[in-house]
Amino acid sequence: MRVTVLLLAGLFLVSEVWLPWSVRANSSDTPAPIIVAQQQSYSDQTLLDKAKTNFEIQEFDEALSTLESLIDRQPPPSILQEAYFLQAAILRTTNHEQSAASIMEQLLDEFPMSPLANETRLLLGQLYLTLEQPERALTVLQQVFNFAASPGIRQEALSQLREAYITQGQHVDAIKSALEEIALVDYEQRAALKSIIQDMILQAMDESSLHNLIEAYPDRYPGDLATIRLIELHTSHGDEVLAERDIRMFLQHFPEHPYAQTAMALLQSFMHKIKINTHVIAAFLPSSGPLKTFGTDSLNGIRLALEDGKQQLGLSSVGLVVKDTATTVNPLRSEIEQVLNDFKPIAAIGPLLSREIQSIAYLADDYEVPMVTPSATLLDVRRFGSYWFSTALTATLQVRQLVDYAMNQLGHTRFCIIAPQTAYGREMSQLFTQAVEYFGGELIAVEQYSEEQTDVAEQIIRLKDTDLSLYGTLEEEKTSKKKRGKKKKKKKMIYTPGFDAIFVPGKPVNLALISSQLAFYDINTPLLGANSWHNPEIFRWARHGIDHGIFTDGFFLDSPDPSVHTFIERYRTRFGSAPSLFAVQAYDAAWLVLDAIRNGATSGTDVRKQFLLRHDLPALNSFASFGSTGVLNRKIYILQVDNGRFVQIH
């Protein structure tokens, strides 16, 4: 029988481990008896025993009255602790949970090292759950599990933790508690706990929770059950792309599992269905590991493009095969070659990372299959082969269109740069300099700072001095006639910058520091930035000087563009969340392939030819074309900081 505290027929039933006044010779949590003055101890003990008797025969009011009298006598600590505990137990039994919890908290506050501390926290955890305070329950129950030495108490703590997590809907944590509890119980109880775990997986956990459980136990129980459940869910919903991916993951981690034969049969069926399509698109994306979120977003974008292609373009015979790049058994090149040989795709989307592209290099050319990376920020993917393309947002795209807008729309001609001393900062500075020169502008000064700096005054003073030697001016402040009659004061000089804007790429916290110090030095020119600005944290950090600042990004959720709005709504409806930039760029990649098929492409060579020759490729927010570097040259959003929010201005 599990060691616990139960309400049975309205009575608070206490088992041996819980009974604070019983002999607990086997409990390592119980200290040696405390000897107190005999007369005082006898009198107090008599009252305590009387209260216990009243409690056992359910004379609760009498028991509480006796305990109040005992507590007023200020008995020795050992008796007072038992009195508090019994008082709380009675109040809980009579449905006065809040009062019971207050007394338990008082016991722990007055006697943090009490031999009853763990039992008190167990009861307090139950009370917090009853009072709908699950976070507090989790805290005290975790303390019991962490510090109790008694296996019985630790098991009870885990049992209650499991229930608390279930109440919170935290099923992965509930399963983790159940697994730890399994190690402390006998065979029969283990079977019951495994049944509870199975019920949670089959009945209570959604797709996201199942994925999290698989991440925690990728190659052992209960990761196998969670993966099987995912396969069943995706198959029943008609998401065969995801089911096929999950089956491959299951077979990789559990090749000897009893379900493996069934999984293999399903996989063969799915592979056959993919191959009989007129065209196949391959996707090389991470579906596990630290990049799982980006891979999932990218896959969602591809799936939505396929659904749109079927509805809008009439392309009903296009299959999709997905390869998880995060769990390859062999080198990535070999794994991708196997997919190319087995499915002969007309095009492939991925991989996500620059280093992955480098590892497979000219594989796209060898198989004459266009590979479109939706996120690798390489400035030139064409150096890895003529079949490589990119729909990613690159630094070149951002900076070039930012400078174009600043000069040709806003009329700026002279610029300064304040950038971090990082690879990112150096790259952005170089690209900005090149863009300014290309459009016929002038760069006045370039300053760098360490990201750890809390003061950039030195850099700003140098920038100001450089500007004063060229175009900036210092003029004496004009004073009114009234002021002239008064005592002369030191003349104030007003600095007027000779440049039009400052490019400040970097993190929101660094932007906050720079913008406030620029204002201190009377430099109130507009600030320019890149998509690192597109973060709500900017409004928490930067309070001065960023209003009307302009920056770029590849996607804007609040865009007024009708096609973008439609895409966002369809994505939310289909996947239950807002699309990320990764989803957008993968959608573009898949849509361009589908558009090429609609326009007559029947092979990878045909798709490549269209990518190279066409200037009307239908990206999500505009027509676009691939440049000589293989990067899609498409519209970039120009955004502005406007009174605590972001707005699209182009």
Report what the structure shows.
- The protein has 650 residues and is an alpha/beta fold.
- Among the domains are: 5-168, Serine Threonine Protein Phosphatase 5, Tetratricopeptide repeat, CATH 1.25.40.10; 396-476 and 492-553, Rossmann fold.
- It has 26 helices and 19 strands.
- The strands form five sheets. The chain has a seven-stranded mixed beta sheet, sandwiched between helices. Strands 4-3-5-6-7 form a five-stranded parallel beta sheet, with helices on both faces.
- β8 (414-420), α19 (423-438) and β9 form a beta-alpha-beta unit.
- The longest helix is centred in the middle third of the chain and has 21 residues, at 292-312.
- The radius of gyration is 35 Å and the shape is flat.
- Residues 1-41 have low confidence and may be disordered.
Overall structural class, as computed from helix and strand content, comes to: alpha/beta
The protein's oligomeric status is single chain
Shape: flat
Query: What is the makeup of the main sheet?
Result: 7 strands, mixed
The count of strands amounts to 19
How do the strands line up in the largest sheet? 9-8-12-13-14-18-19
Radius of gyration: 35 Å
Helix content, binned percent: 40-55%
